[in-house]
Design a protein that fits this description.
Layout: H1 2-16, E1 29-32, E2 35-41, H2 46-56, E3 72-76, E4 79-84, E5 98-100, E6 106-108, H3 113-123, E7 135-142, E8 147-154, E9 171-176, E10 184-191, E11 196-199, E12 205-206, E13 210-217, E14 230-239, E15 253-257, E16 271-272, E17 281-286, E18 301-307, H4 310-316, E19 332-336, E20 352-355, E21 363-371, E22 381-385, H5 390-397, H6 399-422, H7 443-465, E23 478-481, E24 484-490, H8 495-505, E25 521-525, E26 528-533, E27 546-548, E28 554-556, H9 561-571, E29 584-590, E30 595-601, E31 612-613, E32 622-627, E33 635-642, E34 647-650, E35 656-657, E36 661-668, E37 681-690, E38 704-708, E39 722-723, E40 732-737, E41 752-758, H10 761-767, E42 783-787, E43 803-807, E44 813-821, E45 832-836, H11 841-848, H12 850-870
Helix pairs in contact: 1-12, 5-6, 6-7, 11-12
Length: 871
Amino acid sequence: MGANIYRAFVLLSVLSFVSCDLNLQEDEPCVTDGLNGTCVGIFRCPSASLSYLYADAGFSKEKFNYPGLPDICSYKNNEPVVCCTECDISDAERYRDTAIGPFATLTNAKGPVARTKCLDYFHRLPYPCRGQGNFEVKKIWKEDKKCHDYMIKVALVVGGRSAQRWEFPHMALLGYGGDEKSAQWLCGGTVISERFILTAAHCISTRALGNVSYAALGILKRTDPKELWNIHKIKRIIPHPEYNPPSKYHDIALLETEAEINFAKNLLPACLDTGKDNPRMAEASGWGRLGHMMGLADTLQVVNLQEFEETECATLFPPHRHLKHGYDHEKQMCYGNHREIIDTCEGDSGGPLQTNQFKCQYTVVGVTSFGKDCGVLGSPGMYTRVSHYLPWIEGIVWPEETKERRKQDDLWLDRWLKFRFANKYSPYVVIKSVSTKRSSSLAAERGKKMAAAKVFLFFLFNFLFCVNCQLGLDEGAPCITTGLRGVCVNVFKCNSAALTYLYGNAGFNLEQYKIPPLPEICSYKDNEPVVCCTDCDVGQEKYRNFTIGANGFMVPKKDSVAWEKCYEYFHKLPFGCRFPGYFTIDKTWLHHLKCHNHTFTPGGVGFAVGGRDAKRWEFPHVALLGYGEDVDSAQWLCGGSVISERFILTAAHCSSTRLLGSIQYAALGLLRRTDPKENWKIYKIKRIINHPEYKPPSKYHDIALLETENEIAFGQDLLPACLYTGGDPIRFADASGWGRLGHRQALADTLQVVNLEEFQRSECSTIYKPHRHLTNGYDHSKQMCYGSRIEVIDTCEGDSGGPLQYGSEGCYQTVIGVTSYGKDCGILGSAGMYTRVSYYVPWIEGIVWPEEVEKRKQKQNQWWDKWIQWN
């Protein structure tokens, strides 16, 4: 599949374009359609990122007016690097965290839970459902600048109209009375999730009929056959805790249904408005009275209403006994018509005031609350403002998602306090974040108090411990920190701050490792701190897509499946585990530029040169391999490395012996051969997979995988190793095994460790010249050689298959090589040969983590497909 798409991609590139700048790296110059551009990540090219987002949301390029994707230079982290000709090529990636709503509106993908759930509902509908409206993304050539400018427009459709079947699939008609057949259907409501309906608090009960008991969904007319009515029993009624009738304030409530609501084409949830701005025009819908003292409507009615200004609303709704303080713009809104007699009326209460550009889902901005006599020219109706009550709604309707979002918010405060105190105390003074657990009855008020308490703490600690904390400043604002001028930017646009954040979050003590403290925090945006940055290279997100490995090395987040799995294993350990790594982060003030230059020098953890006994649990991934059918009489010879719950990495020449046959067992979690057998964790080998190009007695491709019969249970004495995926050489590395202690000497009882030095390519080629088992001599791309020039230390017979690794004492090691072969062991200046793991990572991944690899391939193929579709 991938090969076919690639061929199609290349063919279309040749046929369709003057210049498809493939194989160009980021920030290299390129040419597209005869225009000069620069290769940048797709989200740094605004019009290209918009084209991608709209296409990915299902909006057809032919039907809607937006440009195609530019020529693709290459790929980086599974995202295209495109040839961009725009004037404002940006490091800000302004649309990186943007999603396209069902109505083509741009929305922050990291926004409130309600917005996230809205997008979730929209994208998992069981049938095709996309907008039919009007928007455009235009590119305009600026001759003076020799680059493109771009603009985006999204248009609203306004005007009164009648409801059609399925036009408002979120509408609910509420029934009162104990018996479904004789129920009275009065107020309206809005389906907002699989279990909840939004309505007005004054609709929850009537004097004569009691509480609301039923909700009829998916209907257009009251006279529709009852078999078309999708009736749900109401299980729980939740008015807002501050609603106190006959007062008109906080007139909002939630109804929980007894059974889950099944979405379909005629029954869909509405989105909830999360913004602060009022739409100029909005639609109200309901089955209320057709006019003052007239009968209830049979067919769902729709009126298009105009926003009234705050001053008009305050004049029309002055204080009175049911509205003590008059119109409250923060919690209410009023809509009507200045020129026509159109309005909501009795029976419309609880129904939605909504906006919609296209079909499918609507966005509810208000809940119909009350008004004066309906149908009076120039007199608007009053609506409860949904966005004000969003936290209360989210806490009830989506409690798990809301709790998770709060945890993230609390985590940021914890991190900030740790970073701030790290400058003054060691170890960290950990101040627990303020708990935000709420009772259902006091949810909104307690939420406000908790938020206020957290803000108070934040300002208090800044006041006590900061010289100049520029809180309340937006991104891009000038700031001052420790007497130096800076600019407020996202933490990842300030590279020294990004390093501090990454290492601090990975558990490295900032003071102990002399890591600069986090700069003063200006504010927060999208759950990330905006810091006062004095770096010279501010704006370049060098470390956005990196994480800190268990050993202090920086690794790309999306470098490979192998690294993703390593990171996953590391972070789900049931016990604390961190490394004391060696690295330096230095900030140097450049007087002529008036800014800081920062240098980052990563490193592994070194050991003293020379062999030694390993410590217990120091190498929890090392395996001792057993040969022979009976475990009690098995011969334990080669070594290996646990790399996942089912697989062990070893040398292909270890997979079998002439006398004892194939490997049968793997002993894990032990230090000595003489450890009591009850302490040995022995796993039966189910499958042996030699590299397909391994052809003994040749020494090339000497690598194999062993699959265990049962899943390996990780513990403090048994952990997987990471696989090295980088191309940079590791100067010093450790080899470990239970092999012979020297030429013709006995096998070691205790696991041995030797610290070896990398030999240069030219040295390896001299030591390992072509011969009958190495026809082409040393192959640097697939092999590596390590040894010592000053001491007689080396791996030896019995160490084969074991790891060459770097790391630190305890926890995780990273395997860079597999012990393959050598000359007589222990000869001064002679290096041993190791199979280079990074070369074989794709082969390993395809066997050990096939599902993750397939997902990655599918994602890559989707990019090819989209590129072909766009162009």
